[in-house]
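User: Sequence recovery, please. Input:
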């Protein structure tokens, strides 16, 4: 019995070791082992390898794990030193020694259970069968490959992607349908991908797939989920629905001339497909999407009554699908392909050979790069013959002559293009010689690009281009001479970049982007992809909440302003009602204050130490100076002005009786420069000076204060009393002998009308501070 237990323990230990080995193999990252970045050069990789190999060599390093570490370093260098293995690892996550991580995982699993004499049939589930892996493994996607390859390629063809995982019964049910769809759509040019959610969780989450199986399509970098029954016809319609609706124009007898004549405005060749099917074939739509930037596509349904004239015009065999390419001449196609059951490869080759017009117009820098590539070697010279002409609604004689010359050209090294000099003025002025003979005339120039920075060598014909036979003969002689002597291009210049003539205006681009985003959000709101919509919904509700809060605050603020601007009679009535009474007692401090109520304590010899001298660091006491006669009016207005600042725990509010503590106040004001009289400056009005309405912000810990000086009367200059805004005169003269006894309640309140602005500056720290050596005793 003990031997049996020991055998089971050993088996469990071996299984645990094998599992740890498998996990360590899956987590192996050669970049992390060597300590280099993914963009490191071969020199950096070799340098890091030599350094680590010397450090971890088993003969020099006696660490027990040195041998395993050295093996990992060697393996990492073996992968990264080979460009093929490194590229394979960057793309698939493994170095390519096996057919993929699933194959490797299955091999290890089988090797393990064979050593323990398990029955092979016991593990032969359809979830991990060799047949299923052989279907999906070819299309497995990894995050880096998806971002770097699939997303850019989705602007040329749509992708159909399946999200799967192990032990997924529904994945097995859709397997036969998926296989048939892949065989059909891949042959038409649709990209296929498979994401294993168990091993590529990052990619599955990035795509928004939170359940398996899921099928989604990607086009122009956007993800769309498939929500119907998984049958072949539904998947085919789903792929077709991904494509834009305006890719192929329906052409009949009524509009074929207008369609083919659009080459001049669109600067593209036009393609016509003649077929007997009412709907446009999916293969043709996919081809139109792949080449939408280069050609315009139309479809003629030959079974329609309105197509007899166009079919007869171009001598089309009604029993065979036919594709015609039209360039500058709409009466005769430039190229024809006709076959039953046309394959994608044949169509691609046919379209690729006819991507450009015979003498295309240079409308942007990208087209210039493609038609006039940079010289790479002496054997790969490419010359561009450029016609610089004015824009015209109809074909001019110089352009028609230039076009006929381009049509007769047989040299592969020469391209013919034209430029509207009025639209590309800087480009044209670089090539056109100075002189009155060339003004307003067409000019032909031969150029060769030397680098991507715009440097060219060129030769401009000595006379303007009129399209005469002599002009053609001169141009032909130059081209023949150029084949023997490239030094004919003697002039050199740097061409400016071409402006994009066909780019939509900003408003249209914005509208297109907004429409795409709205349609994307609309489609997601009606399906189960709510996780992807949560940030947008959160943003919308946050905006609505902020808007609602702003409206409510503004409404209450307007109500307060109306109360403040009410007539004096109503204001006195409100005062009698006791609406703005502040609370003074400690009992009221535990209650929740209503709007306009502030807890204000009197600064006396009892509360002086706790409220000022021993005030905690960072705290300030805002003290209102009042007299017995102005106490009620000033406290009401003081509570109203400072109410919005009561949310700060660092501010305390008090009041000081001028009748009791005038000497203490005047001692403090001596340190505020001219805010109070000098002690030796006695006069008959000294004891009658009115300080009611002054406000002090006292910092007990740092021993400084800031001062608010009120305005005396409404008629006087409106001055904000602050530490940096003090008046040295203190209203000498008539106002010196006045007090607040003769003023009304409204006039007294007006003294604090600017207090809220001063409080804001106090919290900002922008007020002047007056420091004192120590706080005086409060008698």
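Assistant: Recovered sequence (779 residues):
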């Amino acid at each position: 019995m003990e031997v049996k237990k020991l055998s089971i323990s050993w088996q469990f230990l071996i299984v645990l070791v094998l599992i740890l080995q498998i996990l360590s193999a899956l987590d192996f990252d050669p970049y992390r082992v060597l300590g280099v970045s993914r963009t490191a050069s071969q020199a950096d990789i070799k340098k890091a390898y030599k350094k680590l190999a010397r450090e971890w060599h088993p003969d020099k390093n006696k660490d027990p794990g040195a041998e395993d570490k050295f093996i990992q370093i060697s393996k990492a260098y073996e992968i990264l030193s080979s460009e093929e293995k490194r590229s394979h690892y960057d793309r698939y996550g493994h170095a390519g020694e096996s057919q993929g991580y699933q194959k490797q995982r299955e091999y290890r699993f089988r090797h393990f259970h064979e050593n323990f004499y398990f029955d092979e049939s016991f593990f032969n589930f359809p979830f991990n069968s060799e047949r299923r892996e052989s279907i999906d493994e070819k299309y497995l996607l990894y995050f880096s490959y998806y971002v770097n390859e699939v997303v850019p390629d989705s602007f040329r063809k749509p992708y159909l992607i399946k999200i799967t995982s192990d032990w997924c019964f529904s994945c097995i049910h859709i397997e036969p349908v998926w296989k048939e769809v892949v065989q059909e759509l891949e042959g038409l040019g649709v990209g296929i991908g498979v994401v294993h959610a168990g091993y590529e969780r990052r990619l599955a989450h990035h795509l928004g797939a939170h359940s398996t199986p899921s099928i989604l399509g990607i086009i122009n970098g956007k993800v769309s989920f498939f929500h119907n029954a998984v049958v072949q016809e539904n998947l085919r319609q789903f792929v077709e629905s991904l494509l834009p609706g305006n890719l192929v124009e329906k052409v009949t007898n009524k509009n074929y001339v207008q369609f083919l004549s659009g080459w001049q405005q669109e600067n593209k060749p036009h393609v016509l497909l003649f077929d007997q099917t009412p709907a446009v074939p999916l293969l043709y739509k996919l081809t139109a999407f792949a080449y939408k930037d280069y050609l315009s596509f139309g479809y003629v349904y030959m079974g329609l009554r309105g197509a007899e004239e166009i079919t007869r015009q171009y001598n089309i065999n009604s029993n065979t699908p036919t594709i015609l390419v039209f360039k500058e001449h709409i009466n005769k196609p430039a190229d024809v392909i006709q076959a039953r059951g046309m394959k994608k490869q044949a169509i691609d080759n046919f379209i690729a050979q006819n991507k450009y017009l015979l003498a295309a117009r240079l409308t942007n820098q990208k087209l210039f790069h493609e038609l006039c590539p940079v010289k790479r070697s002496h054997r790969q010279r490419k010359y561009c013959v450029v016609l610089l002409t004015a824009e015209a609604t109809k074909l001019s004689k110089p352009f028609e002559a230039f076009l006929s010359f381009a049509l007769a050209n047989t040299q592969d090294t020469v391209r013919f293009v034209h430029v509207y000099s009025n639209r590309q003025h800087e480009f044209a002025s670089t090539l056109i010689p100075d002189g009155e003979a060339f003004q307003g005339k067409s000019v032909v120039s031969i150029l060769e690009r030397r680098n991507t920075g715009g440097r060219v060598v060129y030769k401009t014909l000595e006379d303007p281009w009129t399209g005469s036979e002599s002009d053609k003969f001169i141009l032909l002689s130059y081209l023949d001479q150029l084949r023997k002597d490239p030094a004919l291009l003697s002039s050199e210049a740097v061409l400016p970049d071409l402006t994009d003539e066909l780019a939509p205006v900003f408003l249209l681009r914005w509208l297109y982007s907004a429409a795409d985003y709205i349609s994307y959000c609309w489609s997601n709101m009606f399906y189960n992809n709510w996780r992807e919509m949560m940030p947008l919904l959160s943003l919308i509700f946050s905006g609505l909440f902020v808007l609602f809060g702003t409206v409510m605050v503004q409404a209450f603020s307007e109500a307060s302003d109306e109360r403040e601007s009410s007539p004096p009679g109503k204001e006195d009535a409100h005062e009698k009602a006791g609406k703005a009474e502040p609370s003074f007692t400690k009992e009221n401090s535990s209650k929740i204050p209503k709007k306009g109520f502030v807890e204000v304590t009197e600064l006396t010899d009892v509360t002086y130490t706790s409220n000022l001298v021993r005030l905690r660091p960072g705290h300030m006491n805002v003290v209102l100076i009042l007299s017995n006669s102005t106490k009620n009016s000033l406290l009401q207005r003081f509570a109203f002005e400072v109410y919005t600042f009561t949310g700060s725990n660092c501010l305390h509010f008090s009041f000081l009786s001028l009748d009791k503590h005038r000497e203490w106040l005047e001692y403090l004001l001596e340190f505020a420069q001219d805010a109070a009289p000098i002690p030796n400056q006695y006069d008959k009005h000294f004891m009658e000076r009115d300080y009611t309405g002054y406000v002090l912000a006292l910092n007990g810990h740092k021993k400084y204060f800031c001062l608010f000086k009120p305005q005396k009367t409404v008629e006087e200059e409106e001055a904000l009393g602050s530490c940096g805004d003090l008046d040295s005169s203190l209203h000498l003269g008539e106002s010196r002998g006045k007090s607040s006894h003769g003023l009304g309640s409204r006039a007294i309140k007006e003294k604090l009308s600017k207090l809220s602005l001063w409080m804001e500056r106090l919290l900002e720290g922008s007020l002047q501070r007056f420091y004192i050596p120590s706080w005086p005793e409060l008698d």
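The two ends are 97 Å apart (CA to CA).
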